[in-house]
Amino acid sequence: MKLYVSERAPNPRRVQMFIAAKGITGITEVLVDINAHEHRQAEFLARNPMARIPILELDDGRCLSESRAICSYLEGLYPEPNLMGRDADERAFIEMHDRHVEWYLTLPLAQAIRHQHPGLAVLEQPQFPEFGASQQAKAMDSVRWLDGVLQRQPWVAGERFTIADITAFCTIEFARLLKFKPGEQGFGALQAWRDRVAAQVP
Ligand SMILES: N[C@@H](CCC(=O)N[C@@H](CS)C(=O)NCC(=O)O)C(=O)O
Question: Which of 52, 85, 104, 197 is deepest in the core (most CB within 10 A)?
Fold first, then answer.
């Protein structure tokens, strides 16, 4: 299998961390230069018409995009260590936590960066800085929420490390582009959790 990734991009990083956490080997990484718009060329669009990375190209040539779908596929192929839930109950609750992070933290934060950071102008045109600032405020509400969650429990979805921690970690790391460091902004539980995740997964 081949995984199409790009340097410093948070969504491919989610899948790369998932692969590392599972100890999966043998997937070849293909580097895509999104700043040079390689992902908007016909060859790439044939693999994902949405022009987004990551993509997992299967050995039969089919291409799977969307980070969570790729993770679900890999979880099925490599069940251990389990990162997405062992039964219907656990699967549903882990998915809920993962989606809370993705929709209420990752998405506004990504918009904040895409619309405010000069380095993202090559991908996001036109940029609307005011919209970006409004999204940053929403993302900060979710940061407060997540810090509260992590004051009560060790991991985002509860008592063990799951895909929800990977999604949240990649998001918090991406927020460095806005000079966000949880510990320096009073989010001690979030910082301690971030350091534990960093120590656990390459
Ligand atoms: N929902 C998608 C989002 C993928 C995505 O937005 N990837 C970014 C890189 S992190 C991308 O391909 N950006 C290219 C662009 O904005 O043109 C997923 O979960 O994989």
Answer: 197
CA of 153 to the centre of ligand 1 (A): 30
Distance between CA atoms of 65 and 48, rounded to whole angstroms? 7
Domain count for the chain, please give it. Answer: 2
Is residue 16 within 8 Å of residue 5, measured between CB atoms?
yes
Question: Do 99 and 157 fall into the same domain?
Answer: yes
Write down the pLDDT at residue 200.
84
Say how far apart CA 139 and CA 145 lie, in whole Å: 10
96 in Cβ contact with 73 (< 8 Å): no
Q: Rounded to whole angstroms, how far apart are CA atoms 6 and 38?
A: 10
pLDDT digits (tens, 9 = 90+) for 28-46: 999 999 999 999 999 999 9
CA of 151 to the centre of ligand 1 (A): 31
Mutate to test the pocket of ligand 1, among 53, 105, 111 (most ligand atoms within 8 A of CB): 53
Contact between 131 and 115 under an 8 Å Cβ cutoff? The reply is yes
What does the pLDDT look like over 154-166, one tens digit per residue? Answer: 999 999 999 999 9
CATH of the domain at 31: 3.40.30.10
Residues 47 and 128 reside in one and the same domain: no
